[in-house]
Amino acid sequence: MKSPSPLDNAERTLLVGVGLKQPKSRAGASGAAVERESLAELDELTRSAGARVVGTRLQMRDSLDAATLLGRGALSELQREAERVNAGLVIFDRNLSPSQHRNIERGVGCRVVDRTQLILDIFARHAQSREGQLQVELAQLNYLLPRLAGTSRELSRLGGGIGTRGPGEQKLETDRRRIRDRVRKIQQAIEVVRRQRSLRRRARQGVPLGTVALVGYTNAGKSTLFNALTHAEVLTSSKMFATLDPTVRSLRLPSRRRVLLSDTVGFIRDLPPDLIAAFRATLEEVQEAAVILQVTDVSNPSHAEHDAEVEKVLHELGVADRPRLRVLNKIDRLAPAELEALRESCEQASFSQENPREKILVSAQRSDGLENLIRCIDKAMPVDPIVQRHLTVPMSHGRELAMIYACGRVLNSEVLDGHIRLQAEVPASLAARLDSFSSSQEA
């Protein structure tokens, strides 16, 4: 007897894309091509939310209908299509206004969810820390507030289905006053968390450890790369937005310096502004980073567009000019000819002034190229630079000698009259502490 699939009981979902017929200037692609690509991404998001996609529908229009987005004739066709495939949920690949949402739901006769609500649902599923849960709840309430009128669906965590996984035990009929009170309480709680994070960050800054932040489009392989570099066990998944809560681990560089590597939430096109604002505390790890590793799934045909979306968010965060390394991940998925062409283009770019950011080819899954990546991080790290010193340290000062050997690189040494003369490369912070042992002769 065949065992039941987890998708057998999943919510049957119909995906709908609506676009404009005129061409769009996105890598020269037509409007229809862009919408089909966006629909494919919506398919991934829907599966990440645990639903079963039973059909997709794309309509290209000369203009968007203000009341129903589709127009009443197309809305009737959509109703018949939903009935034919027995879909209990219709997800639109656009953000719907409250009136559009109500009109479409009445016309289709089943639940309707837009792109923002779907992303919020995935975030609600994956947020593990108290901070992450508060941030998701805040974004959900801000989304819910203008949509209170004319409906009475439940937004309880006990509710089932995409778009019903809501903040606490709140219900949709909760009046605006209670929701605004809850929003204020959440904002206060997030501010407390932000202050705690700031205190921890200041304590960290007491020891000069630079932070390296991993950023990139969702599902680019950031968590897999993070685990490969730090030997951590962060959850890795092919599902989108598997990582919401930032994880920080230390990494030893070839110069013997230690840095903190931070794994952050993935970006996506049309990321709701409320989510960017709500996750500001989480994204502070990116804002505080000395070096940014921009991870790209180079095997994805749309990786150039994904990089453009990441660039937008980095500009919004004010870190576009921060030292950055481009990490082209998942090279193991490329055909040999594609990989060779990519290597040649990266070598040519390294001699060009048009693209000064270094590109490093890696496969986080197979740990290919990681040693080169770590060397490049070491080279790009501006925090606590390595300096060369000539030191004369009494042999009785075992603590200082141990620090030199642990945190620096000894080039040569000799024992003389109860002292050890050293030529060593050490972090500038350690060199300052060893200033009393410095010889007059320095490199």
What can you tell me about this protein's structure?
This protein has 443 residues and is an alpha/beta fold. It has four domains: 10-113, Rossmann fold (3-Layer(aba) Sandwich); 125-157 and 166-206, no CATH class; 207-380, Rossmann fold (3-Layer(aba) Sandwich); 386-437, no CATH class. It has helices at residues 31-48, 72-84, 98-108, 115-126, 130-144, 176-205, 222-230, 273-278, 280-287, 303-317, 336-350, 370-380, 398-407, 428-433, and strands at residues 12-20, 52-61, 89-92, 111-113, 211-216, 247-252, 258-263, 291-297, 324-329, 359-361, 386-394, 409-416, 419-427. It has a six-stranded mixed beta sheet, sandwiched between helices. Strands 2-1-3-4 form a four-stranded parallel beta sheet, with helices on both faces. Helix 4 (115-126) packs antiparallel against helix 5 (130-144) and helix 5 runs antiparallel to helix 6 (176-205). The protein is elongated and about 95 Å long. It starts with 11 loop residues before the first strand and ends in a 10-residue tail after the last helix. Residues 24-28, 150-158 and 352-356 have low confidence and may be disordered.
What's the quick description here?
The protein has 4 domains: 10-113, GTPase HflX, N-terminal domain (Rossmann fold); 125-157 and 166-206, no CATH class; 207-380, Rossmann fold (3-Layer(aba) Sandwich); 386-437, no CATH class. Helices cover 40% and strands 19% of the residues. The chain has helices spanning 31-48, 72-84, 98-108, 115-126, 130-144, 176-205, 222-230, 273-278, 280-287, 303-317, 336-350, 370-380, 398-407, 428-433; strands at residues 12-20, 52-61, 89-92, 111-113, 211-216, 247-252, 258-263, 291-297, 324-329, 359-361, 386-394, 409-416, 419-427.
